[in-house]
UniProtKB/TrEMBL annotation:
It comes from Diaphorina citri. This is DNA ligase 3-like. Its main location: nucleus. GO terms for biological process: double-strand break repair; lagging strand elongation. Residues 83-132 are annotated as: Disordered. Signal peptide: none annotated. PROSITE patterns: ZF_PARP_2 (PS50064). One of its GO terms (cellular component) is DNA ligase III-XRCC1 complex. Belongs to the ATP-dependent DNA ligase family. PANTHER family: DNA LIGASE 1/3 FAMILY MEMBER, DNA LIGASE 3. The keyword Ribosomal protein does not apply. It is found in: Nucleus. GO terms for molecular function: DNA binding; DNA ligase (ATP) activity; zinc ion binding.
Length: 149
């Protein structure tokens, strides 16, 4: 009676790549429309309209600029297996994407071995900025409100 589906490993990808089916999607970096048939890459982000994640589409060159400016700890495309939809692309589209990425990604595509990602230990993580304790101004003002006049 249970119709549970097997979890799809493609659903856990942080990035997606495909050809634009319509010309309606816009690049999140340059704010220009992505033309129909153009190869585009999406970064998965939180959906402000509901639960789950949504795809934030970018031109290939724009997402590379985003990668240059982001923090070291933020997810990047390190191997082609980080991108969902990679196997659905034609070999020409795959070559177009790889030609714009650094040499290290092109080399990883030849081997198709996914190296284990280094997970920083708790001692390597930066400590959080300590939060300031709130001063209870209400307690300082309240006695003045109840003075006998």
């Amino acid at each position: 009676m249970s119709d549970k589906e097997e979890p799809n490993p493609e659903d856990d990808k942080n990035f997606w790549v495909d050809r634009a089916k319509t010309g309606r999607s816009g690049c999140k970096k340059c704010k220009q429309k992505i033309d129909t048939g153009t190869v585009r890459i999406a970064k998965m982000g939180y959906n402000p309209f509901g639960s789950g994640k949504m795809k934030q589409w970018h031109h290939i060159d724009c997402i590379l600029e985003v990668f240059k400016k982001q923090r070291q700890t933020t997810a990047k495309i390190e191997v082609v297996d980080d991108m969902g939809g990679w196997d659905d692309l034609t070999p020409e589209d795959q070559e177009e994407v790889l030609s714009r990425f650094p040499e290290s990604l092109r080399e990883s595509n030849k081997d198709r071995d996914v190296p284990e990602r280094k997970i920083p230990s708790s001692s390597e993580k930066k400590s959080k900025t300590p939060k300031k304790k709130a001063v209870a101004y209400f307690c300082l003002i309240r006695p003045l409100c109840f003075q006998n006049v």
